[in-house]
Amino acid sequence: MAVSKDRSVTLCRILLGLQLRRLREARGLKAAAVAQRFGWSTARMTRLETKDTAVEVGDVRLLCDLYEASRELRDELENYALITKTQKGWWETKPFKETVPAWFMACLGLEAAATEIRIYQSEFVPGLVQDPGYAKAILGLSDADDQTIERHAEVRSKRQSILTRQDFAPNVTVILNEAVIRRPVGGAGIMRQQLHRILDLAERPNITVQILPFSAGAHPAMNGPFTIWGFDDDTVGDLAFLENLVDGGVVTNAELVGPFIGAFGQLERLAATEGDSVTAIRAAAAVL
């Protein structure tokens, strides 16, 4: 699996959990029964199969023995486990791990691992494409102190490195409600700089920006913003991410992710073309 370090760590964790769960289900075993066999807690089994965490190679060996995994698959899963124990994403190192909430660490890993990212945002410029000044203006709406705001802004800036990395840069499509480019967050100067940041990104071959105009009327994402992560491994498939005022969550069930994929396809058709969207962003910047 020739991938960058960030993607390697995260994908190994995701793939390991999925494969272990599928092996167990193929043997017709319940997680609780497997846990009892080894004297583990059910929570430990859940962590092995679903959590973005390091996994002991010895645990993988025990499970592969029980599930009678093939030698090829066994070697692959043991290698995944070894990587989860010896490598970390930047968000898991100091000083970021003291700042980034646990639920968001997992999201950063998935974002770094994705080969395709589709974002719809209705209220503000999404963090993945925020300019530092705009980011601080948004973060300043909370009751966090100045040091925390600076650290969170740094996290947002650092995560954007995936957009321009030479290897495995994801294909990104960002659809913004027209309100996003009309609302002057942080004042005219900061907002103008943010709009120019979006224009610069839109020139990159792997990034598409579209504006959903007010004239589109009702649309399939009126319940709120969402993100879809796509991966180049069919074992993972597509995942959806929803964020609210205090936390966020990942939707992994394919049947539940499907409606988000369908809604995004409709948004792409309703939104202005790339060229017209660039024109709209320039016009919004010109009047600030």
Describe it.
- With 288 residues, the protein is α/β, with parallel strands linked by helices.
- Helix content is 52%, strand content 12%.
- It contains 12 helices and 6 strands.
- It has helices spanning 5-26, 31-38, 42-50, 57-67, 71-86, 102-113, 132-139, 146-159, 178-182, 188-202, 254-270, 274-286; strands spanning 116-121, 171-177, 207-212, 226-230, 238-243, 248-251.
- A 6-stranded mixed beta sheet has the order 3-2-1-4-5-6, with helices on both faces.
- The longest helix has 22 residues, at 5-26.
- The chain is elongated.
- The model has no long low-confidence stretch (mean pLDDT 92).
Short description:
This protein is an alpha/beta fold. Helices cover 52% and strands 12% of the residues. It has helices at residues 5-26, 31-38, 42-50, 57-67, 71-86, 102-113, 132-139, 146-159, 178-182, 188-202, 254-270, 274-286; strands at residues 116-121, 171-177, 207-212, 226-230, 238-243, 248-251.
What structural keywords apply?
single chain, 288 residues, 52% helix, elongated
